[in-house]
């Protein structure tokens, strides 16, 4: 095992990563709260600032996935569709089987600039074009318009209470639901309507299955499929169609396409967040199909059948993948930008400095007892953590 791989497995390194994420997250939350007075004055500016703040947090987990654990998503898609990615608003329909599917989603977003900021930095720092100054919606600088992007999702209400991530999503105008239609319908429609004048291009993620796949849930949902006379699915739960239909209806004219995304991992890997933090490399494959929104029926019943048919196709892709290890279509490799890593290193350096001062103070305090107690605590924690991970 190389030194770098050994370091990745060390509790102290992982503790530093989690410390950095949590403290920078709370700082981001605080800065987001500071934007509150701006909302009534200049809502679009407040939204843009929140997107950038969101990027500085979310991209840390992309850096963790791609640079720390070395996991790279392999993208399968039709090259004719590829040209649209990152340049239009879209609804993303994704299977929900893996603990780190959201991380792979963010990595996908980042490759196409939909996570937040890197296009601006690329242009301003790498290509040396002028900073885009906007006023009354016009470009005043002489660089071409820069696409500004954001990722959104439909998530269960409980996630909005999570410190750091949930609070950040609140400011990013994620759509939260209680998964009880009667209670959700008003706020769901309102949240979708709010996205109609969102100043950034966005991708809106919908897990139509409504919950993560387990064998037990699969069995129950296939009983529902049987009662409804629908073909059984092997790799997916039966999709809930109401949320998809409402999203499509409310985002028509705003969103150009549905991206049907099917994610799987090679060699039957069962990836975990802890594994990623431990520096374990996984092998995700993501198949993306672009379906123009006009081909999704407007009528609720027809839209429902359309979605069921889509899931039957997705199920077939997964079945073929389980035999061949491949999705259809050529592999495309969008470039990995350096910004997620630069942002992560920046935060880590900034937040490690107070820790370093604390350490110096500890050593200078000269108290052997305190130093020994600290070393003993760290060793015990490392040992305990090591036995949990093994
Ligand atoms: C690799 C990634 C690629 C791309 C990613 C790209 C971009 C990423 C972008 C952004 C990322 C940003 C952040 C993401 C990060 C992390 C967060 C990720 C996910 C969050 C996870 C979640 O929270 S998932 C849970 C929330 N989502 C949903 O629930 C959506 C699906 N549900 C619905 O749409 C529902 O319709 C509803 C919730 C809106 C309403 O549900 P309700 O039940 O009240 O009404 P319905 O009409 O839908 O249901 C009643 C009908 O259902 C039938 N029924 C009963 N039991 C079942 C069953 N087990 N399965 C299926 N159907 C069932 C029942 O019979 C009723 O049928 P009727 O015919 O009588 O209507
Ligand atoms: C640099 C360190 C980075 C550390 C990264 C940590 C990031 C934590 C982000 C948490 C994001 C939470 C996303 C959770 C998705 C989720 O919650 O899925 C489950 C639900 O669908 C189904 O729930 P249910 O139906 O109730 O079982």
From TrEMBL:
SUPFAM superfamilies: Glycerol-3-phosphate (1)-acyltransferase. It comes from the Eukaryota. GO terms for molecular function: 1-acylglycerol-3-phosphate O-acyltransferase activity. It is an enzyme of class 2 (transferase). Its main location: endoplasmic reticulum. Pfam families: Acyltransf_C, Acyltransferase. It catalyses: (4Z,7Z,10Z,13Z,16Z,19Z)-docosahexaenoyl-CoA + 1-hexadecanoyl-sn-glycero-3-phosphate = 1-hexadecanoyl-2-(4Z,7Z,10Z,13Z,16Z,19Z-docosahexaenoyl)-sn-glycero-3-phosphate + CoA; 1-octadecanoyl-sn-glycero-3-phosphate + (9Z,12Z)-octadecadienoyl-CoA = 1-octadecanoyl-2-(9Z,12Z-octadecadienoyl)-sn-glycero-3-phosphate + CoA; (4Z,7Z,10Z,13Z,16Z,19Z)-docosahexaenoyl-CoA + 1-(9Z-octadecenoyl)-sn-glycero-3-phosphate = 1-(9Z-octadecenoyl)-2-(4Z,7Z,10Z,13Z,16Z,19Z-docosahexaenoyl)-sn-glycero-3-phosphate + CoA; 1-octadecanoyl-sn-glycero-3-phosphate + (4Z,7Z,10Z,13Z,16Z,19Z)-docosahexaenoyl-CoA = 1-octadecanoyl-2-(4Z,7Z,10Z,13Z,16Z,19Z-docosahexaenoyl)-sn-glycero-3-phosphate + CoA. GO terms for cellular component: endoplasmic reticulum membrane; mitochondrial outer membrane. Its EC number is 2.3.1.51. Converts 1-acyl-sn-glycerol-3-phosphate (lysophosphatidic acid or LPA) into 1,2-diacyl-sn-glycerol-3-phosphate (phosphatidic acid or PA) by incorporating an acyl moiety at the sn-2 position of the glycerol backbone. Exhibits high acyl-CoA specificity for polyunsaturated fatty acyl-CoA, especially docosahexaenoyl-CoA (22:6-CoA, DHA-CoA). InterPro entries: Acyltransf_C, Plipid/glycerol_acylTrfase. It is found in: Endoplasmic reticulum membrane. This is 1-acyl-sn-glycerol-3-phosphate acyltransferase delta. Keywords: Acyltransferase, Endoplasmic reticulum, Lipid biosynthesis, Lipid metabolism, Membrane, Phospholipid biosynthesis, Phospholipid metabolism, Transferase, Transmembrane, Transmembrane helix. GO terms for biological process: phospholipid biosynthetic process. The chain crosses the membrane at residues 12-39, 362-382. Belongs to the 1-acyl-sn-glycerol-3-phosphate acyltransferase family. It is a multi-pass membrane protein. Residues 90-245 form the Phospholipid/glycerol acyltransferase domain. Pathway: Phospholipid metabolism; CDP-diacylglycerol biosynthesis; CDP-diacylglycerol from sn-glycerol 3-phosphate: step 2/3; Lipid metabolism.
